[in-house]
Amino acid sequence: MDFTKPTIEYGDIWPLILVFAVACAGVIVEAFLPRERRFLVQTVLTGGGLVAALVGTVLVWRGLAEHGDGAARGAIDVEGTLVVDGPAVFLWGVILVCALAGVLLFAERRIEGGVSAFAGQAAALPGTEAERQASTRGLEHTEVYPLLMFAVFGMLLFPTANDLLTLFVALEVLSLPLYLLCGLARRRRLLSQEAALKYFLLGAFSSGFFIYGAALMYGFAGSMEFANINEAVRNDLGNQTLLLIGVGMLSVGLLFKVGAAPFHNWTPDVYQGAPTPVTAFMAAGTKIAAFGAILRLFYVALGADRWSWQPMLWVVAILTMLVGAVLAIVQTDMKRMLAYSSVAHTGFLLTGVLGVQQASELSDGEITSTQAVLFYLVTYAFSIIGAFAVVTLVRDSSGEASAFTRWRGLGRRSPLVAGLFAFFLLSMAGIPLTAGFVGKWAVFTVALAAGAWPVVLAAIVCSIIAVFFYVRVIVLMFFVDAGPEQGEVASVTRPSVLTSLTIAVGLAATLVLGVVPGPVLTLADHAGQFLR
Amino acid sequence: MSDVTPFVVLSGILFTIGCVGVLTRRNAIVVFMCVELMLNASNLALVAFAKQHGNLDGQIAAFFVMVVAAAEVVIGLAIIMTIFRTRRSASVDDASLLKY
Asked: pTM for the whole thing?
């Protein structure tokens, strides 16, 4: 049997390779550099690598070739396993920006008084002499930076994968480092470890479903490549039972990653238990990458089968929005409330996924669902990162104070920080002149154009419910007295320039996208359709 | 083309056993073993379908799944070990600080 050398288009995928190389270099730095120099080297290496990858993304974006009738741009690379097209490269850019924000938050040391938010020594048991020693010696885990980079690599790969196997590998590469990062909090370590355990067991369970679904799809189509699956679906080849079960199981795996109901149960626990910088990075990055993968899988591989998966997504979308919005009302913890609100946002994004896919089915000036979802992801990412960054600042004597009772009257003590938080909440609620409004408007329009009015109706009802719990937090911050009789209240710690920069960028993006959404919408439009 | 139905049915049974195990067992290590059983059931299905379709995609995928399963073991055991050392228990019921 002859062996033919595979062709690898390094020119198209070098940002991915660069991120991976930086992650590996980070591991080597951990092994060979003395402890006191690692922090600086790791942050510079990681930050520099991400900036270089971002520049590379822009270059790749400019170099995307027109393809076929001009609806899609890009090329299918590496023997059909990766596809570098408009939406994929657009998502690379968003993911890399989120990762940069993540690195800035990871590297913040001023809030904790000279150390990072991660455990000094994860192996030392909580409450023991070893932990106290690690704390007094100022130890910190700089391994978090390579872990972050591996996760970013997985996230970049996820929306780029063009076959089920690559999709599975990307899913694991993005998840495994996140499981570890979740368990590394410096304070409240029991909660953090528990979050890691829950995330890990449930994540592994769902990826079991995913790979079995992939096996069944392979049994149906005889190939793992999306184009061949599409061909088999279109021509009605193969066993329909395998196809249906396969689609169901693949959806379980992907819907788990985005935290859609009924697979959302891990979200609040993990978001609350994980160190807040990790939560910020994960809430944005995972969702962006997984929605890229969902769009590609459902549109490219299963586009011809949309009548069998659309009813399922209708139900999941409505359920997700209701569960997220209703359960957020009864929360008493800020991180948990934001987690449920992110579940609701997953529902809104799924509403967008149900929209019209082909530009040819629309009149001029209307947007397709791909664009709407891409735009929504951008708006969501900036506001959720900003909100979690603000949460890291609000502290009391025992560390971060995420309980609602501690936030009483924060607006009187620190009007600026409370105002910023209120602004991010208003954007998530979808108030006009913030990014969230334009995002919601975009996904609702595309879903309406596709006739999914019951879902849009549910989405509007849920948006109204959501306004209630966001505004309740604002009332809590600005209009409730922080009387001494009701226990301790939190105050705002002054952050270093790193966190301030993250919040400022989140604020600027949320504001600009709300007032002049045009440029980013055009950019999303320029991304075009998925390459088949 | 040979009939691979028995192998696919067996893989389905193994997958179901794994799935039920994850949902009913209490020890984190056993839960994790059941997840591994699910992955191996997928491997069996992949290899059976590769035989049916007469191409190697499924067999290669099985190797990837093995590698991923090994990586998952490394991460998983590390996390379960930390939990066990802190709480002196690997029961998934005891990890219940985060709820509602």
From this structure: 0.95
